[in-house]
Amino acid sequence: MISDLLAAIAFLTRLPVGRRWTFGPAQVARAARCFPLVGALLGGLSLAALWVFTRAFPPLVTAILLAGMAALLTGAMHLDGLADTADGFGGGSTREDVLRIMRDHVIGSYGAVAVVLVLALKISTVAALIERHRAVAGLLLAPVLGRWSAALLGATQPYARPTDADGRTTAGGPVKMIGRTEWIVATVTAVAIAIAVDRWRGAGAVLLVAAADGCWAWYCRRRIGGVTGDTLGTAIEISECLVLLLFTALP
After folding, report:
1. Measured by CB atoms within 10 angstroms of the end CB, which terminus of the chain is less buried, N or C?
2. What is the C-alpha to C-alpha distance for residues 195 and 246, in angstroms, rounded to an integer?
3. C-alpha span between 86 and 34 (Å, rounded)
């Protein structure tokens, strides 16, 4: 379990826990059971930073600093996945076009707009929650449920690329990126954290993220026949935004 957690931290963040270990694809897939725990770690770091920043800065500045810290801790890789996905889905007309564009790491107009909108949405919602003294639950659950959404999609959807790392044909086939057991453990963990943090609001956030994942899975299957690392990163960003929006809207 400890090795799985370290693999999940090394895979999802830029925290230096992975320097002494080498994690292969199989262990990273097994580590998906710990994805919500990594989200909880990131949320805890955000809460610690929130406690420090709010003593020196107004809500908007604090929200910007928190967004920057989150990007630094994750290497902005989920934002990069969002940009690649937006460029591919926005600019590609066929499945092959979409996958080709997504491999090009140059950010186009669709990707730039998507990143700007997501960051603006995160900053504005976090600032609003700070002003209302209600930021704790949102900052903690957004990364937890965001990482859970990636585990959910990886376990239920096929890999969309023509071949995997071993050269096996996978597109549209039965090969999944994450196993069922890992997804079940991740789900139990995410639901338990959500309910423990904010009971019915937490449960509502779980349902909202699950519904959004279902819609995103359908769209990815329709456009490219499954999911990729970029679309999983996009799911994380979408889920985080939805959680923050939900906590901003609820009384």
Report:
1. C
2. 15
3. 28
State pLDDT tens for residues 103-147: 988 899 999 999 999 999 999 999 999 999 999 999 999 999 999
pLDDT digits (tens, 9 = 90+) for 154-187: 989 998 876 544 444 444 444 566 777 888 999 9
Nearest to 139 by CA among 5, 223, 43: 43
168 φ/ψ angles, rounded to the nearest 5 degrees: -80, 140
Q: Which residues 6+ apart lie within 8 Å of 149 measured at CB?
A: 209, 212, 213, 235, 236, 238, 239
Cα–chain center distance at 36: 10
Determine contact, residues 8/27, Cβ cutoff 8 Å: no
Alpha-carbon distance 245 to 65, whole Å? 19
| Per-residue H/E/C for the chain | CHHHHHHHHHHHCCCHHHCCCCCCHHHHHHHHHHHHHHHHHHHHHHHHHHHHHCCCCCHHHHHHHHHHHHHHHHCCHHHHHHHHHHHHHHHCCCHHHHHHHHHCCCCCHHHHHHHHHHHHHHHHHHHHHHHCCCHHHHHHHHHHHHHHHHHHHHHHCEECCCECCCCCECCCCCCECCCHHHHHHHHHHHHHHHHHHHHHHHHHHHHHHHHHHHHHHHHHHHHHCCECHHHHHHHHHHHHHHHHHHHHHCC
**Separation in Å, CA 90 to CA 63, 83, 87, 105, 229:** 29, 10, 5, 15, 17
The answer to whether the CB of 146 falls within 8 A of the CB of 240 is yes
The domain spans of the chain are: 2-249
